[in-house]
Amino acid sequence: MDLNSVNSEAPKDPDMYFRLLSSSSGPRLGRLALNKVTIDTPSFIAPASRGAVPHLSHDNLRDHTDIKGIYVALEDFVEKYPPNVPIYNQAAGSLRNFTSTPSESLLILSGRRVPPVTTAASNTDHSLAILTSVGFRMLPIDDYVSVVSRLRPDIVLGLPDIPSNTPGKHRGPKMVFRTDLWLQQLLNKTIATADYTPHIFAPLLPLDFEQQSYYIETLTDKIDKLSGLALYDSALATELPEELEKLPRMSVDDAESPHKVLQQVRWGIDLFNLGFITTATDAGIALDFEFPRPTAAGEEIRPLGVDLWGKEHATDLGPLGQGCNCYACRRHHKAYVQHLLVAKEMTAWVLLQIHNTKVIDQFFAAVRGSIERGSFEEDVAIFGKFYESEMPERKGQGPRLRGYQFKSQGGTGKKNPKSFTKLGAAGVPAGDMREELDEAVESGVKEVANGLEGGFAERLS
């Protein structure tokens, strides 16, 4: 297949184009180009924490990974009330400057993280409930719209109205109404300038196609203003009307394993917001899989990664992944990373994140090659038989969990161990230890007092 000759019509937007390089139905190949960054799809983007990919400094991101897209949530930066929000008051184009993101990676702005933490309040017609580092807040839709023109992200996602609980028959229509209303505001009020054109991805809700069919039909009328689609239910990609098929499709429906990624590729997803990379890194797991399978391997079912907390890796001088040429595998071995994990040294997670992103990058490259050869379905079947369906279970204690990494639910226990515990030792009640300490202090005071008395007596004699 000559990928440069398929659907090669000139793009309507000189700053951004998405060109389909294969059939528009089922698994598909494409090429997304924006601001001198080119992404061959299917591919992935990395979710950020306060504008940075977890565990990776920007020089590591630039020098040791091939990440070409970063998903940034505005709620990461809204600690204070307007107009005192620092990021709101920066010069134009401040998102890249504020986060110091290398120019080799696209910045994709949304309102909330993926997956979002359940908020104490509900959305309204004019505001979105968010979680900031200092608690729950309401983000006015007008603020989001106005800040887009100032921050100038490469891609901006329209805001979806998604409740915390499963929507009922009355809540579904309200979700569609609000999402359409908010998208209209974003399209009509976002300011384009001579040096900046907003590239807006319309959100598709996690509802049945029939429940939002009217909204999806209205998107065909706005297609000249849209640059792509953000799907919160990836299965909707199979039901999109023909007019929307040539828009790039981003999955905001977090795929939790490579098996689920392959299912979404089958549906026709182009970009994936992958959070399980960082989840594996936090757990001390080095991803270790190839698509469809390693050429020289037996028939036994293999795990998707290696838990480096195991003591058996303390003397293993092999690389984190066989055949991997990432920086971590070229320069270090399992025993070293296992030592760093046990010592709680942050370099362990830096090396793991570099390795895991490389594994995912090679995985998507192999997926694209499989689609091009026409053997995708057969390769998916081989992959499914050779690798376990779920990621390895977390065994070790990773870095301290952040608030947005788990849902806010009442009555749940603490997620992190206490840094300081009550006075006591193994097998000795804290009360007994307290009595022993009191006795030791009292004895020490008496000894000091006796010493002082003897000293004064000698001086007075």
Automatic annotation (TrEMBL):
Which InterPro entries does its entry note?
A: QTRTD1, Queuine_tRNA-ribosyltrfase, TGT-like_sf, tRNA_ribo_trans-like
One GO MF term on file is: metal ion binding
The record's Gene Ontology cellular component field reads:
cytoplasm
The record's section on SUPFAM superfamilies has:
tRNA-guanine transglycosylase
- Its GO biological process terms? tRNA modification
Q: Tell me one Pfam family matched here.
A: TGT
Q: Which cofactor does it need?
A: Zn(2+)
Q: Where is this region: Disordered?
A: 393-430
- For Zn(2+), which residues are the binding ones? C324, C326, C329, H355
> Cofactor note from UniProt?
Binds 1 zinc ion per subunit.
Q: What keywords would UniProt list here? A: Cytoplasm, Metal-binding, tRNA processing, Zinc
Please give the chief subcellular localization of this protein: cytoplasm
List where in the cell it is found: Cytoplasm
Per the database record, which ranges form the tRNA-guanine(15) transglycosylase-like domain? 26-385
Going by the entry's taxonomy, the superkingdom of the source organism is recorded as Eukaryota
- Please give the function described in this protein's UniProt entry: Non-catalytic subunit of the queuine tRNA-ribosyltransferase (TGT) that catalyzes the base-exchange of a guanine (G) residue with queuine (Q) at position 34 (anticodon wobble position) in tRNAs with GU(N) anticodons (tRNA-Asp, -Asn, -His and -Tyr), resulting in the hypermodified nucleoside queuosine (7-(((4,5-cis-dihydroxy-2-cyclopenten-1-yl)amino)methyl)-7-deazaguanosine).
What NCBIfam families does UniProt report for this protein, alphabetically? tgt_general (TIGR00449)
Q: Which family does it belong to?
A: Belongs to the queuine tRNA-ribosyltransferase family. QTRT2 subfamily.
Summarize subunit and interaction data from the UniProt record for this chain.
Heterodimer of a catalytic subunit and an accessory subunit.
Specify the protein name.
Queuine tRNA-ribosyltransferase accessory subunit 2
